[in-house]
Amino acid sequence: MWTVLLVEDEGYVREAIRETLDWESHGFCVAGEAGTGKEALEAILEWKPDVVIADIVMPGMDGIELLKETRKAGIRSRFIMLTAMNQFDYARDALQYGAFNYLLKLSLSDEVLLENLARIREELLGELKEAGEALYPLYHRIWAEISGNRVPAHAAPIALPAAAGKFHSLRLSIAAVLSGADPALPHQAGIRTEEYLLVQSFCDGGQTTFFCWSFPDKAGQACDSGFCRPGEPAADGGLEQFAREWRRVLNQLNGSWYDIMELPVGEETALPPIGELEAALVRAFEERNAAKCAETAALIWESMKRMSFSHIDVKQLAVRLLHVLEMLAGRNAEEGADLYKDEAYVNAAMSHESLLAQVQQTIQEHIRRKQEEKVSYTDHPEVNRVIQYMLEHYRENMKVTDLAKLVAINVDYLSTIFGKKTGLTPIAYLRNIRIEQAKRLLLYSKLSVEEIASQTGFADDAYFIKTFKRMTGQTPSSFRRDKNK
Description:
- This protein is of the alpha/beta class.
- It is built from 20 helices and eight strands.
- Residues 219-223, 226-237 and 333-337 have low confidence and may be disordered.
């Protein structure tokens, strides 16, 4: 409820005003009364009422002086001044100092009072909506931490904007729905907007969260906005409570994501670790084995389900996998291997199974495209065939003699013609392919250096590190660290 303070030296007048309306049915409550300007100022400074209905003429501190002192304190309570027929000069002064309106005592009625309160309510709601816009940077920052997106190291600690003060005394309810590519509307989350002062929506990661602000159920009841109260530090546990509640609401979507009522907890599984499955998927992709890719992707999805991954974590893994495979397919940013496009594509999925189907379809399209490509690396067909074989089998241990047998020509002749057409020996060309693939895996996967060495055809990680440093000037670990800053 919007709070009202009645200030009038005549007790029967205060009583008459108090009994004029059913205040609560109109969104207001008479939270206090004062018989003098001094008492009223003390009350205003303590709990900052939304509306002050005050007599202009009172003994001691009159209504005009009360208004002045309230404004000096930086408090924006709306003042409705009560005046007698012969007090219009005072009324004009009140308006000059920022009173909302003045009303004649003798003609005061519930209709007149309600009209003024309705106008005040619209102003207060407008201010609350405007203040709410200042909360969105806070929502984005907390979402970045919840969703695992990287927050810059130099970023300032999370702090409440000044506008958050308007929400300290309000109750916050959080609701969320899986919304795919498009933001959801409040009614899709079962929210009746007319029951709240303000409903804000936040859409990212394939979900829409609604922050629903309302008054506490009863005047004086403790609120649970999750924001710190006046006098508390700006970045205290209140924000942690808010983030925890948001996470809890988002985790409730996991049942819908997996289309099951209750997720298994700590279920034992004979499936290999997800890291091993990812490596197996990369191998199958490099071998252009579409059936094996689809099977391995399904195992990864089943493993995530058994391990009760949140829908947010599932999408993050899907984005990373798609980006790795696009890089391994040789697509660069100009050709569409864009991380943000991957995220948009993944976030459009509404369920665990539909995302798996999307990923499997994308892998199939990559493989089909690679199989249909007719690439001319040079103007020599045998050299081109050797290069294509290297690109598809660089993980394997191969010798120049093996390559010569592949194209049925003499080893010395292959080395000579290969050098003329590419400027490199076959072994040097193969090493370049392996290092370029290693770079992609370092940048876009979470595989260890040892795993990447194995994935790219190096006999051991020590030789891989030595070769990588000679060719790039950095160790694999420093390359990954510097590029991912």
